[in-house]
Amino acid sequence: DTTRTMYRVEAVERLEEKLVVFFYEGSGFLYHMARLITGTLLRVGRGELHPGDVRAALEGKNPAAVGSTAPACGLCLEKVIYDL
After folding, report:
1. Taking Cα atoms as reference points, which of 77, 75, 49 lies closest to residue 62?
2. Tens digits of per-residue pLDDT, 12-34?
3. 76 to each of 9, 13, 24, 31, 35, how far by Cα in Å?
4. Which of 41, 44, 49 is nearest to 11 (CA)?
5. How much helix, strand and coil, in percent to the nearest 5, is found in the chain?
6. Which of 6, 19, 49, 70 fits a disulfide with 43 by CB distance 3.0 to 4.6 angstroms?
């Protein structure tokens, strides 16, 4: 199954540090999923991609058009929660 539910996607700009910090919460993550989401959001932020293109990709219309994998450097897993 390749369907995952995202509960939270948030971008926080830290101007003094020249950083954008992304927070993701979801039911699970596929291989490179966080990096693909980050790369796509960065392209939208730079004006290289229209938000409507992202919506179309999520609806299954040309998903390859938005794919841009962010580099792994800087990626940090903060917390994992398991229901027992």
Report:
1. 49
2. 999 999 889 999 999 999 999 99
3. 15, 17, 11, 15, 11
4. 41
5. 30, 20, 50
6. 49
Supply φ then ψ for residue 63, to 5 degrees: -65, -25
> At 53, is the secondary structure helix, strand, or coil?
helix
Tens of pLDDT, residues 58-81? 888 777 778 789 999 888 888 888
Q: What is the pLDDT at residue 76? A: 86
Q: Name the region of 39 (left: φ>0; alpha: ψ -120 to 50; beta: rest).
A: alpha
CA angle 6-15-69, nearest 5°? 40
Give phi and psi for 24, each to the nearest 5.
Answer: -130, 135
